[in-house]
Every structure is written in structure tokens, then in C-alpha cells.
Amino acid sequence: MSSDGIDAVLYGHADRAAVMEHSLRRAFVAMTASAALGLAAGGDRPRIEAPGLVFDEARQRTVSFGGGFGAGMSEMTWEYDGRGWRRLDGPGPSRRNFHAMVYDRARRKVVLFGGGGPGGVALGDTWEYDGIAWKQVSTSGPPPRASHAMAYDRRRGRTVLYGGSGGVRQPDLQDTWEWNGAEWTRVATTAHPTGSSLHAMAFDEARSRTIAFGGRPASTETWAFDGRDWRLEADAAPGPRDHHAMTYAPDLQKVVLFGGWNFKDEAGQRDLWSFDGRRWTVIAASGPADYGAKPGLVYDSTSRRVLLLGTNGGETVAGFWQWDGRSWSAVR
Q1: What 3-state DSSP class applies to 292?
Q2: How many CA atoms lie within 13 A of 44 on its CB side?
Q3: Which helix (H) or strand (E) covers residue 6, if one does?
Q4: What is the DSSP-derived secondary structure letter of residue 22?
Q5: Furthest-apart CA pair in the chain: how many Å?
Q6: What is the pLDDT of residues 193-231, one digit of tens each?
Q7: What's the predicted TM-score (pTM) here?
Q8: Do residues 172 and 192 make contact, with C-beta atoms less than 8 angstroms apart?
Q9: Which strand (E) or helix (H) includes residue 102?
Q10: Among 21-30, 51-60, 139-148, 172-181, which stretch is predicted with the lowest mean pLDDT?
């Protein structure tokens, strides 16, 4: 295994031998699965290991960038229009994984920050994509990091970033930042989520709050950010996990969560949950298999379905699934 693949999955955790062994094993499983599915860096589908994934509402396209481990780490941009994937060539962000992306609805642009580059180098650049080309818009703001999370606050027109890890053998970051389309501003909060890396976030449109759940170290906490401070909302279900994904489903008026990894039990999670602002509820106890990399999850407002990119779909499809409100099915 290349050093790229090793470093990319060890942000903030290489000081513990048990976590190192666990991460290396999962990286190997993920790369082996990708190889079996024929997912080369320049293949016919986006990477399924720790990609960036958003839904561009103006153009009705799902946009994926980057992902992959080692030699397979990608710098490709892909779009899905409901019929198939199309690769977009041209200059843009460098190869990376465990980055974060959101769709800025007011400005009609995809926003990308940070991630882990080759050799485990944490990145601190900000890019925007307008459906035609990528443009680097900032090199200042939050310190370089990977395994962070972002959500777009539609009420205030701000991208909210929390947490992440600054690199191998570096402590997790517990800071909150906002991007207004021109500059980053650090938000001075009095509290913050316990899970500060490999967590997930989504903006709850019905209640106008950014929701964060889980992450390392083994968090079961649900936190809400109102633009001023974080507040603990719940602590229990869906159980401790990291490497999970979240999005908001307007039809349900709830945040939905899929999968992840329970480090304590060494088990991949395949469940789908919803959060109504007070409590979590299981929607489906089982779904696509998890093989060890953080997936992307979006709501497609055209098909009114939740799309999942980043699991092992076996021989039928390279890790691309849809939830229609009743069941999961592979997207071919």
C-alpha cells in the first residue's frame, strides 16, 4: 500500500496503535473493493472512497469531486443528470479525499474546502464551481484540515464549517467558521460538538439550524448551530459512529443519516435514520454495505430521492444507490 493511502485515513489518529491498525485495514479493504469494481482514477464513474458530493439545484445535477486512496486518489469532477455520469475535464482542485463540499443556493455555486492530499498533507484552499469551471477563491481562513464537515445555512446564506484534523499525529480541530462568498470568518462559540472529525452535518431547513452528529472520538451526540452558538440536542441514538453521511430531505422535513463505522464494535453500519429536531427515528435497519470509506449523501429534488455514493455495490454498480422513501436500489 502506498504512503498516500495510509496517510489519507489517519488524520489525527496515528498516535494510537489500535486506531492505526484499524484504519490501515479499512483502507486496504476499500482499495481492494475499488480495484475489483474496476474504478481506476480515470474510469467511467466517480471515486467511491471519501468523495465530495452535492446536488446543484439550479442545474439539477449531482456533482462529485475527488476521493480515492493512494494511486487512485482523484482530481476529477463528475456530474450525474439522472441518466448517467459525465466526467468534466479542465483545471480545478488538486487530488484529495476527506474534503467537504456544499451547494450555495443563493450564489448558485458549489463550495469546496480542504481535504487530504497525496502523502497525507492537509489542505486549506477554498474553491467554487459554477457548473462550467472551478475557481480558487481563497487560500486564507480555516487552517488546513481533512475529515471536517460543512453545511449551507440557507436562512443566512452562509457555509458553516466545523472540526476536522490538521494532519497525521495532529489533534482534532474544534473550531467553527463561516464563508459568505468573499471571506472566511471564525465564529467564537462557547460550546462545540464532541465529535470533531469524521462527523457529518446538514442544514435543517424546517428549523433553520445546522445539525451535527457523531464523529470521533466515538460520539453519540447531536448538536445544533443557530448561527451564534452550538447546543447539545440529543445524546443516544443512532449510536456511536464516524464515516457516516447526512443530508436534508424536504419531503420529510427532516435530516437523514446513513451508515458509518462503529470503531468500538469494528462494524460497518447500514441503517438509515431521520431527525425531526428532537429525536432520531430508524427509517430502514439495513441498506447498502459499508466497506470502510466516508460516503456522500444528497437529496435529488428532481427525482425526490436520496442518492448515496460511496459503498460497495458488488457487481451491479460501483457504489451508487438511491432511496425512494421505501427501499434502496442500485443506480445503474
Answers
A1: coil
A2: 6
A3: helix 3-8
A4: H
A5: 49
A6: 999 999 999 999 999 999 999 999 889 999 999 999 999
A7: 0.88
A8: no
A9: strand 100-104
A10: 21-30
Q: Are the CB atoms for 248 and 202 separated by under 8 Å?
A: yes
Cell 445524546: give the residue.
Answer: 235
Q: Specify the residue for cell string 425531526.
A: 276
Look up residue 296 and give its three cell numbers. 456522500
What does the alpha-carbon distance between residue 175 and residue 165 come to, in Å, rounded to a whole number? Answer: 11
pLDDT(246) > 80: yes
3 state DSSP class of 69? coil
Can you tell me which residue has the cell 486518489?
73
> What pairing do the DSSP bridges indicate for beta strands 149-153 and 134-138?
unpaired
Amino acid identity of residue 63, one-letter, is: V
Task: Compute the C-alpha angle 138/244/212, nearest 5°.
Answer: 65
- The residues, any chain, with a CB within 8 Å of residue 134's CB and separated by 6 or more, are 77, 90, 91, 92, 93, 127, 128
Q: Is the dihedral of CA 224, 230, 235, 239 positive or negative?
A: positive
Q: Is residue 27 within 8 Å of 292, Cβ to Cβ?
A: yes
Q: What is the pLDDT of residues 132-157, one digit of tens each?
A: 999 999 999 999 999 999 999 999 99
> What Rg value do the Cα atoms of the chain yield, rounded?
18
Could you tell me which residues come within 8 angstroms of residue 42 by beta carbon, excluding any fewer than 6 positions away?
76
Cβ neighbours, 10 Å, residue 131:
14
